[in-house]
Amino acid sequence: DADVTQTPRNRITKTGKRIMLECSQTKGHDRMYWYRQDPGLGLRLIYYSFDVKDINKGEISDGYSVSRQAQAKFSLSLESAIPNQTALYFCATSPTDRVLKNEQFFGPGTRLTVL
Amino acid sequence: DAKTTQPPSMDCAEGRAANLPCNHSTISGNEYVYWYRQIHSQGPQYIIHGLKNNETNEMASLIITEDRKSSTLILPHATLRDTAVYYCIVRGISSGSARQLTFGSGTQLTVLP
Fold first, then answer.
1. How far is Cα B102 from Cα B1, in angstroms, rounded to an integer?
2. Which of A10, A55, A106 to mutate against chain B (most B CBs within 10 Å)?
3. Mean pLDDT (whole number) for B76-103
């Protein structure tokens, strides 16, 4: 969905480096999410935010941190990257008024490789 | 949230209907069935959802059995662009406030020319 953008789209880094993945949305949604996807494991939630002042840990938050700089921006950081953080990372948004529908809009993904 | 079981893969001929099954035998009364799909390396895309009645939209139809223990997603005229992994998700409206979606392994649908 072009309304949710992620940068960079691909990144190769080394163990121990600090990495930031950025997500921006023009949909005006309050809720934003970060997921990672590993082969055969589906998507797993890392962090989520219901508004600028609300940050919550997801299923697998260890080794990650996030920042909600504005309604439209939600960044994911790996403070000290390790190889098992190699994965495809997705940002998603959802509008509060569609909570019942559980419809989330996903970005195109960031492929991160940690050597 | 109830656990779901889907076949790992299915094939379908182009132009034919694709019927993707999902078992959710432990579903409770306030849990909805959602379907998403993910085309290779792209972000997941919402398709449809339902509670107990059959639902239809521009993308697909959702048939839920009377006992709600299983459902079928139907793509009426599959095209090559429908090749994707399809995820069946059961989610309650009162299952916490996170509204995060739990994606399992899904079904890899391959539409054959």
1. 9
2. A106
3. 80
